[in-house]
Write a structure and sequence with these properties.
Elements (H helix, E strand, L loop, with lengths): L6 H63 L4 H6 L7 H21 L5 E6 L4 E4 L22 E3 L2 E8 L12 E8 H14 L5 E4 L3 E4 L5 H12 L6 E8 L2 E9 L6 E7 H52 L14 H59 L3 H18 L6 E3 H19 L2 E6 L2 H4 L2 E3 L3 H13 L6 E10 L2 E8 L6 H12 L9 H13 L4 E6 L5 E8 L5
Parallel strand pairs: 12-14
Antiparallel strand pairs: 1-2, 1-5, 3-4, 4-5, 6-7, 6-10, 8-9, 9-10, 11-13, 14-15, 15-17, 16-17
Helix pairs in contact: 1-6, 6-7, 7-8, 7-13, 8-9, 9-11
C-alpha cells in the first residue's frame, strides 16, 4: 500500500506521523499531570478541613469536659448544701464560683456562657451579667439530649451532677448549661478562609448553614441544596459543577454538634497554570501545523504538480499518443525537464510514423503473399475432384465442378481489391458446397446469415478454406450423412460467421494444438488453409480478430470467424 503512494503523499503522511505522536504523548502527559494535581487538591482540601474540624472539636470537647468537671469544685458542692442558709456565706460562695468560671472563660480560646442551676436550693449562677436567668422548673421537665443543641443562633449543651440524672434533670444536685454563639464558629471560618483558598461553612440538613462573613451565598445555597439530596457519610468528598465552574467539595461530620464541616475549592483556579501551559502547547502545535500546511502546499505547487504533469505525459506517450507536449511557464528545473521531454516525444513521433508507414507497406505485401498461397491449394483439390469424376463418367459433376471452378477463378482473379463482401463470400461458398454435395452424395448444408452482415467486408477466400476443412477432415472420414451449418450474428460492432459440422470432431488436445499453430510461423508440417485465414484476419482487423475453434453441438467442430467493424477499412 505504501509503495503505491506518490512522494507527496508520503511526505504529508510523514509530517502527520511526526505531529500526531507528539500530540498524543503530550495530551497523555497533561492528563496525568492534571490527575495528580487534582488528587493533591482533593487530599489537601480534605486534610485542611480535617484539621479545622479537629480544632473545633477539641474546643467543644474542652467545654463539655469543663461542664462535667465543674460539679466537683468544693465551692459549688458547698454552695448547693440545703442547710447553708447564711446569706453572707452564699454571696461569698457565689462570688467565688463566678470568679472561677470567669477565669476559665479568660483562659479559654472561646467566649462561652456558663450557667449553673441548683435545683435543691432553686438558685442560678451565670457568667451572663446582663441577662441573669431565673430558675424555672419547666425548663428541666424534659430529658437532656446527649449532644449540643442549636437554638437561637447558639449551641447549647447540658450536663447534670450526677450524670445519671440526664433523663430527669429536676432530680439532679447540679445542672450545668454551656453555650456559645454561632458567630464564634463564623469567626473561625473567616480565619480558616484567610489562611487557605477554600470557602468553608457548616451545614445541617434541617437547620441550614453557618457561613463565614465573606461567603458567596449564591454558591453556598446551591451547594447546600445538593448536599441535602445526597446520602452523606461520616467523611467524604465529591466533584460538582456550579455556575459553569468545577469545584471539589469535602465534608466531615461533627460528632459533637451533628453538623457537617464543608469546604469547596475551584479546580480550575488551581489548575490554571497547567491549563495555560496546555493551551500554549496546543497553540504551538497549531502554528506548526499551519506552517506544515504551507510547506506542503508549496511542495505541491512546485514539485507535485509538475511531477503529475510529467507522469500524465509519459502515460499518454506509452498509450501511443505521441502528440503530447508539456508546458511549464515557470523557469526552474522542471522547465528544462519538460523541454527535454517534448524533444523526445517529437523524435519518437517521427520515428513511429516512419515505422508505421513501413509496416503498412509490409502488411500489404504480406496480404498479397498469403492470398497467393491459397489459390494453388484450392485449385489442386478441385482438379483432383474433376479427375475422379471424369473417371467415374459423372458428366454432371464434372460440368458442375468446371462451372463452379470457373466462377471461383473469375472471383479470385479480380485483383482490383483484396476485400470481398460477405454476400460475395457466401455465393462462392454456396458454389463450393454444391460441388461437394455432388461429390459426396451424403451431405447437406444450411446458410442462415442476417442481411445486416451481408454488406460487411472480409479478405477474399475467408469462408472457403474453413468449409473445405470441415468436409475433408470432418464429414468424409465419418462415412455417413453429414451436415454443415453457416450462421452469422453482429452485436456491439463485433461480427461473427460460424461454420460448424457434424463430422468426426476433435479432442481437447487437438484443439489446443490447433490454437497454438494459428499464432506460430508456418512450417512444412502445417496446413496453410486455416492458418492463412487467421493471419489475414489478424493483419486486417487487429489482434482481437481471427478464428476460434470449439466443440459443435452437431458433434463436430465449430469455427467462429470474428472481426470488428472499427477496423473494417
Amino acid at each position: 500500500m505504501l509503495a503505491r503512494m506518490n512522494v507527496f503523499t508520503k511526505m504529508t503522511l510523514l509530517i502527520l506521523l511526526f505531529l500526531i505522536p507528539v500530540l498524543i504523548l503530550y495530551t497523555y502527559s497533561n492528563r496525568e499531570s492534571v490527575a495528580v494535581i487534582e488528587n493533591e487538591i482533593q487530599s489537601a482540601t480534605t486534610n485542611r478541613l480535617s484539621t479545622f474540624a479537629s480544632s473545633i472539636e477539641s474546643n467543644i470537647y474542652q467545654l463539655s469536659l469543663y461542664g462535667i468537671s465543674i460539679g466537683q469544685d468544693s465551692s459549688i458542692q458547698e454552695f448547693q448544701l440545703p442547710d447553708n442558709r447564711i446569706p453572707y456565706e452564699r454571696v461569698r460562695l457565689s462570688g467565688a464560683i463566678l470568679e472561677k468560671m470567669n477565669l476559665y472563660n479568660a483562659a479559654s480560646k472561646w467566649h462561652s456562657t456558663i450557667t449553673l442551676y441548683f435545683p435543691r436550693i432553686r438558685q442560678v449562677i451565670s457568667t451572663e451579667y446582663y441577662d441573669s436567668p431565673a430558675y424555672d422548673e419547666k425548663e428541666f421537665s424534659e430529658p437532656f439530649p446527649q449532644t449540643w443543641v442549636y437554638k437561637d443562633n447558639s449551641f447549647i449543651w447540658h450536663t447534670t451532677e450526677p450524670t445519671t440524672e440526664m433523663s430527669e434533670p429536676g432530680k439532679a444536685r447540679l445542672i450545668t448549661k454551656i453555650s456559645f454563639p454561632a458567630n464564634q464558629l463564623a469567626a473561625l471560618l473567616d480565619q480558616n478562609k484567610q489562611n487557605n483558598r477554600g470557602d468553608p461553612f457548616l451545614f445541617h440538613a434541617g437547620l441550614g448553614v453557618i457561613s463565614n462573613s465573606s461567603a458567596n451565598t449564591t454558591l453556598m445555597t446551591t451547594l447546600a441544596d445538593q448536599l441535602k439530596s445526597l446520602p452523606l457519610q461520616e467523611e467524604s468528598g465529591f466533584r460538582t459543577k456550579l455556575d459553569d465552574t468545577e469545584y471539589y467539595v469535602s465534608y466531615i461530620r461533627s460528632k459533637s454538634l451533628d453538623w457537617y464541616y464543608v469546604d469547596y475549592v475551584p479546580m480550575q483556579q488551581i489548575l490554571s497554570p497547567v491549563t495555560s501551559s496546555r493551551n500554549l502547547f496546543y497553540m504551538s502545535i497549531s502554528v506548526l501545523l499551519v506552517m506544515s500546511i504551507v510547506v506542503i502546499f508549496t511542495l505541491y505547487r512546485s514539485v507535485q504538480l509538475p511531477l503529475l504533469q510529467l507522469v500524465k505525459g509519459t502515460r499518454r506517450l506509452s498509450d501511443g499518443d505521441f502528440s503530447v507536449r508539456l508546458d511549464n511557464p515557470k523557469h526552474n528545473e522542471f522547465s528544462q525537464l519538460f523541454i527535454r521531454f517534448n524533444i523526445m516525444a517529437q523524435r519518437i513521433q517521427a520515428l513511429i510514423e516512419n515505422v508505421y508507414e513501413e509496416r503498412l507497406r509490409r502488411r500489404e505485401a504480406t496480404l498479397k503473399q498469403l492470398q497467393s498461397q491459397i489459390n494453388p491449394h484450392f485449385l489442386y483439390n478441385c482438379l483432383f475432384y474433376i479427375k475422379n469424376m471424369a473417371r467415374m463418367k459423372d458428366e454432371e459433376a464434372v460440368v458442375a465442378m468446371a462451372l463452379n471452378l470457373g466462377e471461383y477463378y473469375r472471383y479470385i482473379t479480380r485483383s482490383e481489391k483484396d476485400l470481398a463482401t460477405i454476400s460475395e463470400e457466401l455465393k462462392m461458398a454456396t458454389n463450393y458446397l454444391k460441388i461437394q454435395a455432388l461429390r459426396l452424395e451424403r451431405m447437406s448444408f444450411t446458410i442462415d446469415v442476417p442481411c445486416d452482415i451481408l454488406d460487411k467486408t472480409v479478405p477474399r477466400l475467408t469462408l472457403q478454406p474453413i468449409i473445405e476443412n470441415a468436409i475433408i477432415h470432418g464429414l468424409e472420414p465419418k462415412g455417413e450423412h453429414g451436415e454443415i451449418r453457416i450462421r452469422g450474428v453482429s452485436e456491439n460492432g463485433i461480427n461473427i460467421i460460424t461454420v460448424e459440422d457434424s463430422g468426426m470432431g476433435m479432442t481437447e488436445e487437438q484443439f489446443v494444438k490447433m490454437r497454438h499453430d494459428l499464432v506460430k510461423p508456418l512450417d512444412e508440417h502445417m496446413g496453410c488453409g486455416t492458418w492463412n485465414v487467421h493471419q489475414r484476419l489478424t493483419f486486417q482487423f487487429g489482434d482481437e480478430s481471427g478464428l476460434i475453434f470449439r466443440h459443435s453441438p452437431l458433434g463436430g467442430v465449430r469455427v467462429d470467424i470474428t472481426w470488428r467493424d472499427n477496423m473494417d477499412k
